[in-house]
Amino acid sequence: MCFRLVNKSIMLINNWSEGAIMTSVRGDFGILSRNERQLLSLIRRHGPLPRAVIAQHIGLSAQSVTNMTRKLIHGDLLDAGAVLRGKVGQPLTPLALSPEGAFFLGLKIGRRLVELALIDFTGRIRVHRQQVYTFPHPEHILRFARRELTDILARLPLRDRARVMGLGIAIPGKLWDWGQDMAPWQDVDLPAILTPDLPFPVFTGNDATTACAAQLVFGKQPLPRDFIHIYIAHFAGGGIVLDGALRHGPRHNAGALGSMPVSGGGQLLEQASISVLERMVGKPLPPADSGWDIPLALELEWTQKSSKALAFVALSAVALVDLPLVVIDGALPPATRARLAIATRAALSAMPAAGIDRPDVIEGDLGRSARILGAAALPLSHFFLPDGAMG
Questions:
Q1: Closest C-alpha to 143, from 190, 106, 102
Q2: What average pLDDT score do residues 297-314 get?
Q3: Candidates 3.40.50.720, 1.10.10.10, 3.40.50.1820, 3.40.718.10; correct CATH number of 34-99?
Q4: Which residues pair with 78 in a beta bridge?
Q5: CA-based nearest residue to 24, from 182, 199, 176
């Protein structure tokens, strides 16, 4: 994703309010080695583990693991749990991620909703702010981001503020392609605007790709090393994971599943998006599951049409890269998401697949929180995941 230079109107609001954010020092744990990152990622995926199990998983000696965990505990990145005493052998002490070990900010910019969240080291959302709008004008987004960033950080204790590692921004690619109202975005570089006044780095990613990253980093379901992730929001999008790493591509367009052509003409985003359902309903749908009130027959009609397009894209991806799994998630009520996954599975089973293996289809488990968690996962990945885990 690439944003060009900021225009003059945006530069006019480039200064923070009087409650400017204080400069902070990043955490006191130092630069982590790849083995230390791998150890933390192992616990993030599997939950609390004793040192012996960690050593078996990452192929290091017990002494090496002891030295690493001692450093990570001293740096407040790991917590030692209660000793587990069995009948045979030495007692075991499970090690877990320390929630206050580090903090990450995520900013998600959507078609009708902007969100800012602070998450802790375990991925739990500690603070969440949002604002609904008709369309995302850059000035409104920046005003919201500055106001809420200042307030959130000002409310943190100094020790926690020093452990905020960065801000991740999840934003659709080429917003200006959405219509004339979005044209101002063509001249906006959000990181360039926000970075000078922040005491930590700013990262940017495609919103659908960050949703895939969230599933990879925070999801609890077992995943193969290769899969595609389709995220249904105002427009459909996606991400691709190969060899356990999220792939972006040289132009950050890898996994742009919403742009893929589908049978009958057009693109996936024109078939399997919430915007299509809104046109069928005749009104915008609210950005909360509780506000959805759609006749079941109409939702099922959309689900059937969407599932055929999703199956076409999924099977095309499998034919190209030999992927065993398709994960379907989205800003949808759980029941709607479940029906869409079931219908896609059925549509896949009806498609010709000579010479290839049809992939499994499962639901993602993050729903509406995927993109904001994925945004926060951008700085988390930079500082704490093994090299290449997020591309």
A1: 190
A2: 97
A3: 1.10.10.10
A4: 97
A5: 199
